Amino acid sequence: MAQPHRKPVGDPGINPELILKTAAELIEIDGVKALTMRGLADRLGVAVTSIYWHIGGRDQLLDSLVERLLGELSNLPAEGDNAIERIASLARSQRRVLIERQHLLGIAHERDRTPQLFLPIQRALAAQLAELGVTGTDAALILRAVQVHVISSAVMQFSAVRGAKHVEKDPSLWSDALADRALLEALQAPTDYDAVFEYALDALMATLPAPEQGPHQRHRD
What we know:
With 221 residues, this protein is mainly α.
């Protein structure tokens, strides 16, 4: 079997960003336990020493992946014409990253970096809430509600995609006594997690004071 072409150490065709991107892809497919430096080198078509030269060993590689994720979560887009729209935008952006980087979150947790990962989004949310005049214990409660909603939704969606499948239309799961047939049919259909997320996010945003209400409407610090 032909061996993949191996670029020399320091070859400009290989760089830290490409190594980290490829490692993240392998982890997404096979999980972090299956990641080996040799397997990564074979995927890139380089010598293992080239990865060590650019990144370091496996621990340094995993630390670099966590730093990469931290950078991504520190620069989430907050789009919108007012604070409420920007809070919703931050929530959507965070959920997307959590779903796409689920395996990297596990690595961060093992390295006790989870608080650092979520601190930037918490600061961003707090700043937007302050713009609405929501501070103190009110802000803490709303901030945590948004975070719980985002994280729970991401975990449920990821579990639905990666977890064991079940038959949605198994008659034993439903009661024939349910009079609302439209409800029964809807509940038997696959869950639209995006729609559920947006519905609950809208409900959360509806509890916030309108931007034109002024900066001191909800201050209870």
